[in-house]
Design a protein that fits this description.
Helix content: over 70%
Number of strands: 0
Strand content: under 5%
Structural class: mainly alpha
Radius of gyration: 18 Å
Number of helices: 5
Length: 122
């Protein structure tokens, strides 16, 4: 039970929230922007964001599985556990960088008025 709680605490519950955010943004882009090449490019960026979020979710699941196996094996060395965590945090850093880059790319295809309408609470 403790292993499950630690895993949920550190790794989160998957990318459901991010996928919902991307889906909402996609709907807003379709509503706010004129159906033209810029809208098409903005939707392509959102598709790339969704693909990247799904890939990260798979990576998190691999990390969960690896940690579970290590924690269940009482012979596991601390270095093995540290290696899994190091890989996870490196993956998270890359994911955050990628998503930030994609958000900047999205901003290139959307003017400021559209951006305000697409992201009303930002």
């Amino acid at each position: 039970m403790l292993i499950a709680l630690l895993t949920i605490f550190f790794l989160g519950g998957g990318c459901t929230v991010m996928l919902r955010y991307i889906a909402d943004t996609k709907d807003n882009v379709k509503t706010v922007m004129v159906k033209d090449e810029l809208q098409h490019e903005a939707l392509a960026v959102l598709k790339a964001m969704k693909k990247r979020a799904n890939a990260q979710d798979k990576q998190v699941k691999r990390t969960e599985k690896g940690l579970k196996e290590l924690f269940e094996n009482h012979e596991s060395a601390a270095a093995e556990i540290d290696a899994v965590w190091a890989e996870h945090f490196a993956s998270m850093d890359q994911y955050n960088d990628d998503m930030l880059d994609l958000r900047f790319e999205l901003k290139e295809h959307v003017n400021s008025e559209e951006w305000e309408a697409i992201f009303p609470g930002d």
